[in-house]
Amino acid sequence: MRVILAEDSTLLREGLIRLLAEEGHEVAAAVGDAEALQAAVFDGAAPPDVVVVDVRMPPTHTDEGLRAALEIRRRRPGIGVLVLSQYVEKRYATELITADTTGVGYLLKDRVAQVDEFLDALDRVGAGGAAFDPEVVRQLLMRSSHADLLSRLTPRERDVLGHMAQGRTNAAIAGQLHISQSAVEKHVNAIFDKLDLSHVTGYSRRVLAVLRYLGS
Fold first, then answer.
1. What is the mean pLDDT of the chain?
2. Where is the Response regulatory domain (predicted)?
3. What is the rounded CA–CA span in Å between residue 31 and residue 4?
4. Residue 67 in contact with residue 89, Cβ under 8 Å?
């Protein structure tokens, strides 16, 4: 894949450049601030497949990276965006997730040290899927105001919904929970029923199921 990196930590940025190059990806640009990121994306000769961007970047180190990521998704929705964050930024994570879950990911920086998990997330985002850090999902679900909906689900259905929120397919969920894919499908259908989503058309029921728990 063709990747653009935006990370103000020189050490992490250089490490990601080397890792991606070793995996056969092309690092089209590696920058240290949000302004340079947007210039690389919008003014470059060829668009990247995926942008990997830190939430907090210069000059204020608040939400420059996240705002740049949202602008990229608005103007170039075909570009995947994988956001990295030192901590779970609940407001920013919710904003990113609720905007669209096609080709988007949100990982804690600690997850980057788990190389296989980081590369798996990058591949999923590049293929148009979603990849959300389990800790991000856990904290977002905890803040949900829809406790009454949570009470409708069995513990196993909650497990399945948690993996759905991470962007995993039914087959991947089956592998993670060590159950059959048909069992996962039954749990997913039960979740849709309990959230009154069985007859929804025109929208992704998987996305709607997750968003109900994010209070959106």
1. 84
2. 2-124
3. 8
4. no
